[in-house]
Amino acid sequence: MSIQIASKEIKPLRLNYAHIARRMGGDTKPASRYQEAVLDVQPTTNFHYPPTWEPNKQLFDVTRTAIVMNDWHTFADPRQYYYTSYVTARAKQQEVMDNSFEMLEKHGLWKTIPDSVLNTIRQVLVPLRHYEYGANLNNQDICDRGYGAPITSLASFNGFDRIGMAQYISRIALLIDENEETSLQAAREAWLHDAAWQPLRHAIEDSFVLDDWMEIMVAQNIVMDGFIYPLIYGRIIPQLANQGAGALLMLTQFMSEWYDETVRWSNQLMKVISAESPENASLLKQWVSTWTARIEPAITPIAALALGDQASAVVASVKQELLTRLGKNGVAV
Q1: pLDDT (tens digit, 9 = 90+) per residue, 136-150?
Q2: Which of 91, 186, 225, 328 is the most exposed place for a label (fewest CB within 10 A)?
Q3: In contact, 203 and 191? CB cutoff 8 Å
């Protein structure tokens, strides 16, 4: 007996869900997984009750920000992150970081770093774990009160990343101290009481109580990160590496890669929102001006812990990079 196996093409009746097909203009092109995950997922109608804590609003309400968008799905994450693509990318990066920590610990490479450089790492890098915890709170707040699935899903992923980076910083501190908590406790004291850290701590705590979630987005993910990451991971860490802490570059690799990712979507977000209307562009400009004026003097004393007299000039160069980048994306300050 012989069996004849023949292939037969079966055309699906439809390529996309109806709501995605309506948005993409027909049903001729299949949506990407990212588009299926975010397009028109935002609840817009049929809410049962207003929130008891904010009875003048709906559960999902566009008026929680002064930014006005005709379509909150105009923005798309250039990384195309939805759950699977996000966790796959982060799992690969975590494997690289775990290998780096294991190699440095196994060969005792920390013991070759001069004590003066280790002290600078303790003073400048380790307290940033508290900054990252604050950034997580801000991003989860955006996810909670924000509007538009492409933006709120991105904020949620961003918040998870900040917890991960706080843990990497904690792991560096434990590596330095050979699993003692000395540097972690000192960093907590510095965050709470050291004069150099209080302006930044004050600024991030003020961001916790902002009413407008888009202002939080600008304050945290655009301005504060726009100063902190280029300063710490772009200027100070490479300088410490030249002074004998080359291993630190491996242990902060994720932070550098993460910020490069963040610049991609934050540029796109500012470009899309500012292009929507002159009023949006004016509001973004106002928020960037306000928080830039707040953060520049706040991080200068932190920079001075590592850079000394050069701190003001370096912070000024970081500020100029941020403003130039935003100017190219529709927010000229």
Answers
A1: 999 999 999 999 999
A2: 91
A3: no
